[in-house]
């Protein structure tokens, strides 16, 4: 061993010493010591020193000494410690020693005593560290405990804690962080995660926490500027800190009073600063004394020192401070055959343990850091699977509990170490390899006994213990790991309790941490994101299965809230999952079940009232109540689902929720106000003027709108309204003055932005759109999706502008995609034509830095601000026209199809579903009709559809596959002289029995092309 520094004359009595450097004073020489026994650990504080040695017989010897004053000289008296357990490591404070046994027990030793005192009841501990007057411990299951003085928050327990705590206290804020190391300085402490995140707390008067200020921290705070540095070691002095990266780079910060930071300066550093003098030399070890620092470069066999040197602790042969790293004066002939294993720095002492064993000294080899927290790996799982039926099952259960009850252990188990990706953990990268998580989960499922035990531990211990306010991204990995476990559990048809517990844990997260988790979801691949969605979505259908009446809707609500979060994330993903991924598969059957139950109850009531029931009164009442309770349960479920419409497919929304609310609203208004029927008479030539005049005269509530074309006899049972709205669309698009403009490139309509007063036409336009939706009619104004997003409170994006104005949007995309110099050469400013996008925008140039902001503001101007008043009037009218709010459950795409109809023409279905009255399908006239219809062009077929139904666009949910046309024989004396007729309200075609296919073709074409009036039908 080499030793230098204060009172090295007897070197604690560790062995024979020999001075190896030629200095004027032996008090400041470097000594080479041939120790009596091999030394494995050294710790020296201000008043105490401790060593772990091994005797020749292999027995361990722990020696502790205390500084004493003897005839004006400082001496150290060592004495053996009576240890019943083998000591793995130790650490010294100012006047106390903490011992860690191989079995994970912690002992505190007062140097005046030779008998260690057990510290608290801790789970097996793997690391200990001491500050001046406080201690911290890291357990095998990843938990951190602290005790001692707490004047500056060095225990990290947060606000409101006592200034002194004798018993170990749990640092809950670090409970989910997978840690690699703990360490402590004078009155500050640090923890290092497996992914290189550094957390500091305690005294910060000189910036020793590296947080950029001098404010003490009462709880762990991340040193974010070190995140990308791949930190592997942290060490602390009294008021300074040093960190070592995987690349062998050293950063220091804190007090520079004695030059202990190595920056050729005595200035304090509030943030980590690279030690430039060590640049290019791969440092393998760094240690801090009280006010000095040592760094070891294994490749050169050199130890560098800097900082306070008044006691010779720098090994430079003099007693002066040194602010730059310089080599310790070890002579080459002494170390040629030796490798430095470990270096140590005490208060004013320095040590280097050496070995002649081949291959030693190659890298970090500190036994204090060898033991790490438990992890879950293939080897462990395979052992559980192989031995779970043996006598060792109880031991396996204990191991399962330790790992699966600890978020820290699980978060550190699946690190993505390929190309050090786990060191890149950030808001956009979790640092774990989910493919390894998936394999591990599948392996656990190989044995039900093991999987069930895991499930029980997760339910009883892990989920309740998850921190609501995790300190960093690494803590949130557990929410990416659990869905893979849920996936294999669901295959085993396990209960929903664990899914509900996982969802509840997510919702307990503080809002800012939940946003971080959503950011991680956003970065997942499609496969793993689908797993997260399915983990929660798959159980929802179980709430509506037979026998599920006792399920609590509170549980369902919790899961639906998480699904809502996932659905919102999905809408932001570059590659979205289909909306069907979120649908509850069997929810459509609820509505039919309710109807069946209501019918059953009505039948029972009839039988009872007419005296034909053979059940007694008690049975009747009980049965009726049971059915009523079930109906109430399902209706409550339906009410809940209405709040989360993304889990319902379009058909369920239309046939169930939408139609139920529509019918209820109409029946309510009829019962409340009487029949609120308004008949609007319009002329085909003056349709728009008549419509606006009618709407201006309405002063009361209008539930239903019926239309009559002037001078025509048709009654409106639906078909007249369909044609009215079909014609109205063309009139609105061509009205003068215009309220809608049609983009020549996209063919889509948008509000006019001409400088004119906002008239009531925008309000009436909205009312007509709302009334068309309410009356289940099609009003195809070719609006872009952006309009329906705005109605639903969603913000339009550049993609929406691409739909409305492709050329304009492509120019904006060009600005986003180009290199920096190209953007600046465009000479763009924050203007849209003559409108400023920001105050004084004419003088603000678009650069590569602000171009995203420019594009966002441009889109906002086009789709929002420029039509703000127009849209406000339209929206108000829309809400008036459609008085029920259920339309808000539809997606923008669904709402657009509801209002504008769809063009998914399944012409074959029209023939397949046709019914005949007065004809048979095999009659020649019917065969001729379908042959002629097949010959029609697409436009002719759409014209026929208008003739038959009143519109050429199909209302959503009324596709041709569901449209049942009836072809009826038109009884007349001269069939060839008559045209076909249609009854649009009932989708009936009255067809004369023509004598030939040619006459049929001629008469049908004439009828669908020129007939624009409603007759007697």
Automatic annotation (TrEMBL):
PROSITE patterns, sorted: HECT, RCC1_2, RCC1_3
GO cellular component, one term: cytoplasm
Active-site residue numbers: 985
An example molecular function term from Gene Ontology annotations: ubiquitin protein ligase activity
Domain spans labelled HECT: 695-1017
RCC repeat coordinates: 104-141, 142-195, 196-247, 248-299, 301-356
Protein's name in the database: HECT domain-containing protein
Protein species of origin: Esox lucius
Source organism phylogeny: Eukaryota, Metazoa, Chordata, Craniata, Vertebrata
